[in-house]
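Dig into what follows:

_____
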Amino acid sequence: MMLNESRRSKAHFDITLTALVFGLAAFGVLSVSVATFKTDSQVEDTLLNYIVASHYGLRQAIFFLISPIVIGVITFFPYEFIRRRSQLFYYVACGLLLVALGGQAAGVKAWIDVLWGYTLQPSEFMKLACIIVTAKYLEKNDDPMGSWNSAFRLALLMGIPWLLTLVQGEMGSVLVAIFLFGVMMFFGGMRLKILGGIIAAGVIGIAVLYGVTMASGSDSYRLTRILSFVNPSLVDEAATYQVNNSKIAIGSGGLTGIGTFVQGSFSQLDYVPEDWTDFIFSTIGEAFGFAGTMFVVVMYLLIVVRLIYLARFTADRFGQMIIIGVMGMLLFHVFENVGMTTGLMPVTGIPLPFLSYGGSNLVTNMAGIGLVLNVVRNRSVMNSERLTPQTRVRGKYLR
């Protein structure tokens, strides 16, 4: 990718991306509070009081206030350390995944108890580790998986954290990691035939894995989720209850929504299970209507477009792949979450970035944005030395 020396490729702190992200995150605090407020608590009719009175709303607000610290630390973290010590992040993520196997919550061994009831979800940080080590691999290899040796090495590198995450029951996180890996490989220069073969092999492998686990009866709830999406008539009403109620709640909002903190609303009555986490989009649809959901979708679109723009004017191959990886991670989260809450995709338990309740999810997404800001802050105006011929060839997709 040939870059002209211009202000668009100069190192800077990207205020546009930061404003978009924090705008969404602030809206997320409001949405979580709306989804979890209770009328039995006597509070003055102010937004701050409603947030404080909501257990999850208050916790999300705390995570939101921590976010600038996360962004600041990662943005100003030594860039060369991230580049040269990429394997360190990988080892830490794998170590946390191993520790998480000792705990269990709701049948899923995916959380580590921290302090005061707060937990840590290592599978979230696994995504960032995969982005960093994949970016480092692509920086060193002009032809990803061009030989059997490199193919085996990369498969082993990615297979370990994916398998550890899968064992924990976090299929959604594995799907996100696979998608962002595919996006990075595509923009990193992998030949499309090889990429297509890997995708086909991955689909077959997941299908076989599902078949084995379902035959053993240990993963029946995932089979129910798939059947409820493919053919709802094959399962009982309980299996489609959450998605059906989500669609009703979204539709009830009409064009502009019924408003926030309304007594007797679907949100207040807990009509949609988990409407403050994975199904926060249903709360937004009810409270803010079609206008609110479109605001959310447009905000995500602006973030994705901004990330592509920043990647296009980043000459450093490692940094460019970091941005592409973060973009792929957010894109899959949004596509799958909005799709499952509206019945267009199967339920996978994937949260909506910056909006769904969850400290690990919010911190991970903020850390991803911090990585992007770090890249942009440290990129040179025209560093063609780090641009390989393969980068220039694949760079046409970023124009």
User: Anything to note?
Assistant: Residues 280-312 form the longest helix (33 residues). Residues 1-5, 381-396 have pLDDT under 50 and may be disordered. Residues 7-398 form one domain. The chain has one domain: 7-398.
